[in-house]
Amino acid sequence: MTAAQFRTPWFWLSLLALMLLSLFVLYPLLNILTASFLGDGPSGWMRVIETPKYRQAIANTLILASAVTVICTLIGVPLAYVTARYTFPGKALIALLPLITLVIPEVIAAQTWLMMLGNNGLITKFLREFGIRLPSFYGWFGLITSMSFIYYTYVYIGTVAAISKFDAQLEEAAQSLGTAPVLSRLRVMLPVILPTILASALLVFTMAVGNFAISMILSHRLPLLSVATYQAAVAEGASDITMQSTLASVSVLIVMSVLFFNRWIVRRGRFEIVQGRGARPAALRGLGGLAVGRPSGAVVVISLLPLVTIAIGAFTRSRGPVMQWGEWTFDNLIRVFVTAPGPLVNSLVYAGVATFISIVFSALVSYLVVKKPNILTPWIDYVSAVPLALSGTVLGVGLLATFNSGWLSLSGTASIIVLAYVVRRMPFGMRNGQAVLHNIPNSLEEASISLGVPPVQSFFKVVLPVMLPAVASAAILTWTTTVAELSASILVYSGGRETLPIQIFRLIDSGLMAYASAYGLVLVAVILIPIIVATKVFGIDVFSRR
User: Fold this and answer.
1) Lowest-confidence region among 179-188, 473-482, 537-546
2) DSSP 8-state class, residue 328
3) Which residues, at least 6 apart from 493, have a Cβ–Cβ distance to it below 8 Å?
4) Is the C-alpha dihedral spanning 84, 90, 95, 99 positive or negative?
5) Other beta carbons within 10 Å of 325
6) What are 168-183's pLDDT values in tens digits?
7) What's the half-sphere exposure (Cβ side, CA atoms, 13 Å) at 82?
8) In 10 A of CB 132, how many CB atoms?
């Protein structure tokens, strides 16, 4: 690094960015890891080893994540194949899958599954009249079912992209040598797309390990790692953080191990299609179209059931926890907008501020990493990716341990909620920003500077306008995921600062499903309206970089 680079504003901006990332990302993580060895008596690790409840929670979490991953792969890969290779009646429904993933927060998914298949669920009561008794939806059955119908989308999205880009000429060449069509796909196409499938499956595994909302609502008496971490944080608070930090550290180690394994798999992917043509989708009609279309449509319809259930529940009259199905009312929505609008206002304000901060910071840091590299930018790139390995529960524990007191005490304020949002969702903006910057030639900015425009002004006048579509897309994705965030915010919020997901969670815990449905419907609208405006009015492709 030359002395001239020290005199540029970009170096000092890089230093400031690295300091902020170290303070709000690395420092909380370091506090978690060190606190697991501190405290009175044996370390947290010894307590985990000696306590059957904690050992069982870790084992159950690994079993649950493995089962969900296998089921999601079995659903997502075949669905991706038929979508990429065939046209059939109802195929347009499959385009809803990315949207379903975004507009149905996990807390709402868990709630609506209970409303349908819980002990007093609509479907449960209907079948009970015919003498059919379904197993309890609490525990393994509910956890695996609900998570599978949320996370299979991630396997589908990754796999359908890989199959669509696969060069069909390779498959045709194998068949010309006498290989049967099915064998040619197994021998030629499968090795190419396998790294993508495994990477998507490992992503599902990490998400299942860190899942909080569904685990907390449906686990009942089944010990799980995320639930045990939350309970330790709530029970012990900030006075003794050893146990909560240890459980959070276990979660981090599991996720980091999976991410390293994921990276190893990607590196072993030896196949690359440079310029080929994807297979043209073949039309399926008659029995073939029905055989493919009906199961595919059924998967999407089941995925959409939470949206339908939440809409019905929001207008259903209730008496305490008892839903009066078939009796309609607007009282539930009146509660949201008139009687108790605080959670809605808080969500809009906190998520709006967090989205703005996250996008501005991500755009600047992405520019530094891609266009103005220096001795600090590789470290910025590494640290900014750390939140990908942290579940919301782990992040909440880290923020509580770090900013509960001292020179920067944020506990009990709205700032710590906004901070949790920014740190948790920052990688969305980073990924979009870096992707588009790699496609912007340096000559554009250099030409501006050569005409006498200072470097910083050149960024705002030349580079930023080109980045705006990607920045807008990242802003929408950040907003939709931030406004639905629960696992971190429920640990750091204080009284009077409840957001929509927190209020829904509390109402579900109290059995007030009708009120929870009203808040849930409003939350879905808050998520869905910006997506519709962005795509239909401004023509922004929100899903182009997912």
Assistant:
1) 537-546
2) E
3) 417, 499, 502
4) negative
5) 15
6) 666 656 556 556 555 6
7) 21
8) 10
Residue 337 corresponds to which tokens in the numbers above?
């907008």
Q: Is the pLDDT of residue 198 over 60?
A: yes
| pLDDT band of 128, cuts 50, 70, 90 | confident
CA distances from 137 to 115, 144, 334, 437 (A): 10, 10, 31, 47
Average pLDDT over residues 229-236: 78
Q: How would residue 274 be classed by pLDDT, with cut points 50, 70 and 90?
A: very low
Map tokens 């992405």 to a residue.
Answer: 366
Q: Which amino acid is at 193?
A: I
What b-and-e string marks burial along 267-276, b requiring 16 or more CB atoms within 10 Å of the CB?
A: eeeeeeeeee
Cβ(521)–Cβ(314) below 8 Å: yes
Q: Is 324 helix (H, G, I), strand (E, B) or coil?
A: strand
- H-helix or E-strand containing 502? helix 500-510
Helix (H, G, I), strand (E, B) or coil at 124: helix
C-alpha–C-alpha distance, residues 397 and 390, integer Å:
11
* Alpha-carbon distance values, 227 to 75, 192, 223, 333 (Å): 27, 38, 7, 30
The answer to whether residues 512 and 320 touch, using CB atoms and an 8 Å cutoff, is yes
* Average model confidence (pLDDT) across the chain: 81
* Of 284, 298, 343, the residue nearest 516 (C-alpha): 343
Q: Which residue has the higher pLDDT, 217 or 98?
A: 217
Interatomic CA distance for residues 93 and 106, integer angstroms:
21
Residue 326 dihedral angles phi and psi, to the nearest 5°: 95, -10
Q: Nearest-CA neighbor of 250 among 417, 416, 51, 418? A: 51
CA dist 398 and 172 (Å) reads: 54
